[in-house]
Amino acid sequence: MTRLPDLKGPELRARETTLDRELSLYSANRLALDLSRGKPAPAQLDLSHGLEQQLNDNYKSASGIDTRNYGNLRGIDEARDLGGQLLGIPAANVIAGGNSSLFLMHLVTSTAMSQGVWGDDRRWSTTAKVKVLTPVPGYDRHFTLCDALGIGMINVQMNEHGPDMDEVEALVAADPSIKGIWCVPKYSNPTGCVYSNETVERCAKLPAHAAADDFLVFWDNEYGVHDFVYPAETLADILSLSKTAGTQDHIALFASTSKITFSGGGVSFVGGSENFLNAIEKALSVMMVGPDKVNQLRHSRFLAGRLDQHMLRHAEILKPKFDIVDQILQTELAPLGIATWTRPKGGYFVSLDVLPGTAAETVRLAKTTGLTLTPAGATFPGGKDPMDSNIRIAPTFATTEEITTAMEVLVLCVKLTSVRKLLKDQTA
Amino acid sequence: MTRLPDLKGPELRARETTLDRELSLYSANRLALDLSRGKPAPAQLDLSHGLEQQLNDNYKSASGIDTRNYGNLRGIDEARDLGGQLLGIPAANVIAGGNSSLFLMHLVTSTAMSQGVWGDDRRWSTTAKVKVLTPVPGYDRHFTLCDALGIGMINVQMNEHGPDMDEVEALVAADPSIKGIWCVPKYSNPTGCVYSNETVERCAKLPAHAAADDFLVFWDNEYGVHDFVYPAETLADILSLSKTAGTQDHIALFASTSKITFSGGGVSFVGGSENFLNAIEKALSVMMVGPDKVNQLRHSRFLAGRLDQHMLRHAEILKPKFDIVDQILQTELAPLGIATWTRPKGGYFVSLDVLPGTAAETVRLAKTTGLTLTPAGATFPGGKDPMDSNIRIAPTFATTEEITTAMEVLVLCVKLTSVRKLLKDQTA
Fold first, then answer.
1. Residue B331 carries which DSSP code?
2. Do B264 and A71 touch (CB under 8 A)?
3. Could you tell me which residues come within 8 angstroms of residue A64 by beta carbon, excluding any fewer than 6 positions away?
């Protein structure tokens, strides 16, 4: 096949006609396909029905806490163990919370803003215009959270091994109003990249180089054990590295079981130094008496000693889905020179880059054909992709049959939109 | 028996010697008694073990929602029904949340402060020094929450039928920086009073009389179905009354199952008008994808059609405990003219008022004898009881044997401290 950008006008017009006809065959079928949300499939949720068989009228934690009653803001020990396992840090450095790690991220951010998380006078609210770095493409809920708290965002480029750390370090050293950076270090949302050892080490040292003395690295390790290609990717231990660098009070780690057990009914975790956890516990104490320890106990007992095996069963469900995505992209788009995409070894997303200026139109066209995709631009702060080229593919929830059809529609939409863009560029 | 205030010095000194000896007999026993926390007893928690038998691999809500997955910020319909039942309002006026109603109170307060809850420009943060009214004695966590958000508190007197509404109305009409009032309208913490119909109606109209146009009535109805004397007390429907008064966007209702099922693993609720719920849902959307719907489903199924029966079993456990408290206070203190106390028909507390200037010393003395009480002053903002006379008794968690001994110690401490105070006053 010829690369589309090499085709002349008449050839492109012929392609447009053919592609339009092909796509209309799908439109006629009134499809209702969805590759927009990073949700586990029902078959994955079924893997955790054993949760309900864990208590058997025994609600005592290993240390003798009655999980049914009030209290214990840091969570029960065995849940903190589980969080430590997910984050690759000691249980003592973990607070186990409720069902939402996003809540914990909001808590850390709003606490850094208002009371500070260092037990002293440092707090972001004393700075007129607080900003954080947002590696892009990234996770829209991080951006929404910052927006809601009035925090500005500065985009930095995501590369194969994490954010462009030269750019990150230069920005952070120059501007004391830059107070943090959002990182999804393993199977990043949406590119699926894993931060290299060098990147992790440079992230750990970042607070020491920052012009701000109240800098925070947000380490949202939601996909830390969510491998589906083995041997699994490894991630360096940022908390240990930060201790060496003396920056341990400036690292905030997050994880949850949302994509391990039940997305809506799991357990979340925040990790960091003892100083940091003290500040977070204090902030929590104002707004709750304790987390849902009963659910923590269910989870700890269910996953104890079998987390790896459990994640392997997730992988068995997920791997074929990601294979379909890659195979159809490879077959249909690779020869045409109009798109690139990531091939993650874990996580929940594939990041597809189409010709600049065609992502929004591709998503719109897919929608008219019955395929819902994540809105173009959603992977950038303010929903604005400056190149209009990034599309996030979330293939986990749909069945393999649905994914196959959805990807057939998607590649047709990419081709047709690309052809029209190339035609427009030629006549411009 | 003679009233202690009528005794002369030598008689008081004789009493002091006798009481001191009696108390020392208890001290010798190295007691470890606790009447400080409003926690359900293990036997009450046992009543809800059926929660774990509700799912049976069927995680679909009545409307077909897979509770295991993400989403549904307002909670599932059957959980909202349950919240409506607890609050006495339609399910449509309820959001069902996670395990903590205190979190929802914090959310409403911080949202009123920062973004407002009326979908317009009104927000408390535009006022230099925001204040709220705190009927006293009251609930310490309400005070701590306000403190943490920089909200000042103005005490108003709690009477038998709720706050002194003449005082409340006068304050609210005069000062636009007064933005709200905290109410525990049924079995108030700690007095156990139930707001009369007139008080509820005046509370409903309060936002219309307030100088502030962004006034909120915090209606923390935590004990709405927690009767232990029958026929149960009834509480007027503030939401209906507020609709009549046109103040419905200024009423925030709260409830939870924390003292119905598991204190640490229940479901919480916030209620109000559709405008109000929209604002709260928007605030929630920034910090979570949805509540723990699995736990909501457990609760809804477990309590559906049997809430009254379930609460009756709580009452069977609680009534004898409150009877012991009242009986010992009645026998030992009533004739002496040194204390008054409340006789609640539900809820979790008895409020004891001792001679002015003796509460802190009574609590201290009890502690040295091995009885932990809620710190004196805790029922007032800043921990400061201006009269130093209020002591909160929380008899739910302890066994009847422990309560009996604890109350014997408590009345001895009250007597001894009173005698010493009277002696001091006579020599002064």
1. H
2. yes
3. none
Question: Is B235 inside any structural domain?
Answer: yes
Q: Report CA A190 to chain centroid distance, whole Å.
A: 6
Percent of chain B with pLDDT over 90: 98
Chain B nearest-CA distance from A139, in A, is: 13
pLDDT, mean of residues A227-250: 97
Tell which residue, B154, B247, B167, has the closest CA to residue B207.
B247
Examine the pLDDT at A281 and tell me if it is beyond 80.
yes
Best of A34, A45, A46, A52 to mutate (most B CBs within 10 Å, chain B): A52
Q: Which of B258, B291, B306 is the last residue of a domain?
A: B306
Q: Classify strands B152-159 and B131-136 as parallel, antiparallel or unpaired.
A: parallel
Range A175-190 average pLDDT: 98
Binding-face residues of A in 273-292 toward B, CB within 8 A? 285-292
| Domain assignment present for B352 | yes
CATH, residue B341: 3.90.1150.10
Mark which residues 386-425 of A lie under 8 Å from B by CB: none
- Residue A9 and residue A67 in one domain: no
Same domain, A246 and A388: no
A106 at interface of B, judged by CB pairs closer than 8 A: yes
A292 contacts B98? CB cut-off 8 A: yes
Mutate to test the interface with A, among B256, B288, B298, B348 (most CBs of A within 10 A): B288
Q: What sign does the dihedral A199-A202-A204-A207 (CA atoms) show?
A: negative
Q: Is B292 within 8 Å of A39 when comparing Cβ atoms? A: no
Q: How confident is the model at residue A253 (pLDDT cuts 50, 70, 90)?
A: very high
Which residues, numbered 140 to 179 in chain A, qualify as contacts with chain B under a Cβ-Cβ cut-off of 8 Å? 141, 144-145, 148
Position B1 scores a pLDDT of 65
Q: Choosing among B256, B286, B348, which should be mutated to test the A contact, i.e. which has the most A CBs within 10 A?
A: B286
Distance CA B223, CA B318 (A): 13
Average pLDDT over residues A44-71: 97
Contact B145 A66 (CB under 8 A): no
Q: What is the CATH number of the domain that holds B178?
A: 3.40.640.10
pLDDT, average across residues A164-190: 98
Question: By the 8 A CB rule, do B215 and B207 touch?
Answer: yes
CA separation for the pair B228, B311 (Å, rounded): 8
B181 lies in some domain: yes
Same domain, yes or no: B114 and B193? yes
What domain range is B332 assigned to?
A: 4-44+309-427
Residues lower than pLDDT 70 in chain B: 1
pLDDT one-digit tens code per residue, B74-95: 999 999 999 999 999 999 999 9
Using the beta-carbon criterion (under 8 Å), do B45 and A67 form an inter-chain contact?
Answer: no
Q: Rounded distance, CA A418 to CA A424, Å?
A: 10
Q: What HEC string does A400-420 produce? A: HHHHHHHHHHHHHHHHHHHHH
Domain final residue, candidates A244, A279, A304: A304
Judged against a pLDDT cut of 80, whether residue A108 lies above it is answered with yes
Average pLDDT for residues A318-346, to the nearest whole number? 98
Alpha-carbon Rg for chain B in angstroms:
23
Quickly tell me which residue has 């407002």 as its tokens.
Answer: B116
Identify the band that residue A1 occupies on the pLDDT scale cut at 50, 70 and 90: low
- Domain count of the fold of chain A: 2
* d(C-alpha B408, C-alpha A413), whole Å: 81
Encoded tokens for A58: 């025994």
pLDDT digits (tens, 9 = 90+) for A23-41: 999 988 889 999 998 999 9
Q: Do B287 and A145 touch (CB under 8 A)?
A: yes
Residues of chain B with C-beta less than 8 angstroms from the C-beta of A39: 69-70
Give the DSSP H/E element, type plus range, for residue A354: strand A350-354
Q: Chain A within 8 Å of B60 (Cβ-Cβ)? A: no
How many CB contacts within 8 angstroms connect chain A with chain B?
Answer: 134
